[in-house]
Amino acid sequence: SNKEESHDEL
Amino acid sequence: MNIFRFAGDMTHLISILVLLLKIYATKSCSGISLKTQELYALVFLTRYLDLFTDFISVYNTIMKLVFIASSLAVVCCMRMHRVVRRSYDKDLDTFRHYFLILASFVLALLVNEKFTFQEIFWAFSIYLEALAILPQLVLLQRSGNVDNLTGQYVFFLGAYRAFYILNWIYRYFTEQHFSRWIACVSGLVQTVLYADFFYYYFISWKNNAKMQLPA
B87, B130, B149, B172 - which has most CB atoms within 10 Å? Predict the structure, then answer.
């Protein structure tokens, strides 16, 4: 999803 | 995950290890800003609120826990440890970091991906991380001298930022729908803040001399 994509970094 | 992001995460991890090494080996935190360390602890605590709600990978979860634990360990050590606490440059570390927290929070309320509790704190942590190095840079500027391990610590932190920018450039060209301008713009601002430090770091490295910042 879009949310996961934008928060997959640390 | 690409090589640039991995290199960024590793240099971030190394910077924390160097900091812990400095504090534990020399039993001293001179040259280290407690305010910057407190801001980083706040950054990790507010960014990783998704730790229990969104699972991305084992790698991400472990790294998040490591960053939270290590940042809290540094703050506790600088505040509580009898010997370490004495070496803290309290008079040089006078940056009003509450303003950075306030400014980041207001900005997060105004500019976020979604107006939800988690998203606002995520944006807040991104903005605060960009500014969190300021008390540290001001402290080094004021003390003039930068000891070896403190210099390495800030160098690796800056390297982490530089690798993340390469990571975003890479992702921009290799992924469809790659848009994360909040993180990218903040990351760019954060990296620019290191430019001055890097300049003097490389001069001292080139001359093989102890690092000094101009008054």
Answer: B130
What is the domain range of residue B92? 3-205
Compare all CA atoms of chain A with the CA of B168 and give the residue at the minimum distance.
A9
Cα dihedral sign for B112, B115, B116, B117?
positive
**Interchain contact, B56 vs A10, CB within 8 Å:** no
Instruction: Report the number of distinct structural domains present in chain B.
Output: 1
Q: Does a structural domain hold residue B215?
A: no
B211 within a domain of the structure (yes/no): no
Q: Which residues of A touch B56 (CB under 8 A)?
A: 4, 7-8
* CB < 8 Å to A10, chain B: 9, 12, 60, 63-64, 67
Asked, for residue B214, whether it belongs to a domain, the answer is: no
Band of pLDDT at residue B179, cut at 50, 70 and 90: confident
The partner residue sitting opposite B67, judged by closest CB among A8, A9, A10, is A10
- Report the complex ipTM: 0.82
Q: CA-CA distance, B44 to B125, in Å (whole number)?
A: 7
HSE-up of residue B61 (Cα within 13 Å, Cβ side): 8
DSSP B48: G
- Is the CB of B5 less than 8 angstroms away from the CB of A5? no
pLDDT tens-digit map of B59-102? 999 999 999 999 999 999 999 999 999 999 999 999 999 999 99
